[in-house]
Amino acid sequence: QLQLVESGGAEVQSGGSLRLSCVTTQYTLEYYSVAWFRQAPGKEREGVVCISIDGGKTSYKDFAKGRFTISRDNAKEMVYLQMNNLEPDDTAVYYCAAKRGAWSARRGEYDYWGQGTQVTVSS
């Protein structure tokens, strides 16, 4: 079973940057589309961005456009989320998720999830 492990979460000040990483264990990522989701306290988990298997297609939620960048390195089994100009509203647990085949922005289509990494942005 595909296992995902996120890292890179931290507490930063408003305007700061973080790079989150997601690594797979036991199986290769090259057959999976990947997405980042986040969940703030008291809110539902929401999508941030997704990326196709080959990395050629991405889809960002409006709040992430221009500030966040997703990338992947299949040879290293890694997916990254570069987050710039962070705001307090970005405070959440960020999750990496994967699904076989075509990419999707729909949370319910992702079969594999990491445990999440906490991002806290202070004002």
Layout of strands and helices, then pairs:
Blueprint: E1 3-7, E2 11-13, E3 18-25, E4 32-39, E5 46-51, E6 58-60, E7 68-73, E8 78-83, E9 92-100, E10 112-113, E11 117-122
What's the total helix number? 0
Q: Over all CA atoms, what is the radius of gyration? A: 13 Å
Which structural class should the secondary elements be placed in? mainly beta
Shape: globular
Strand content: over 45%
The number of E-state strands comes to: 11
> For the residues shown, what is the average pLDDT?
95
Could you spell the SSE succession in H and E letters?
Answer: EEEEEEEEEEE
Poorly predicted spans: none
Helix content: under 10%
Distance between the termini: 40 Å
Polypeptide structure, described:
The protein is built from no helices and 11 strands. The protein is mainly β and 123 residues long. Strands 2, 4, 5, 6, 9, 10 and 11 form a 7-stranded mixed sheet that branches. A 4-stranded antiparallel sheet has the order 1-3-8-7, with no helix packed on it. Strand 7 (68-73) and strand 8 (78-83) form a beta hairpin.
In short:
By secondary structure, the chain is mostly beta strands. It has no helices and 11 strands.
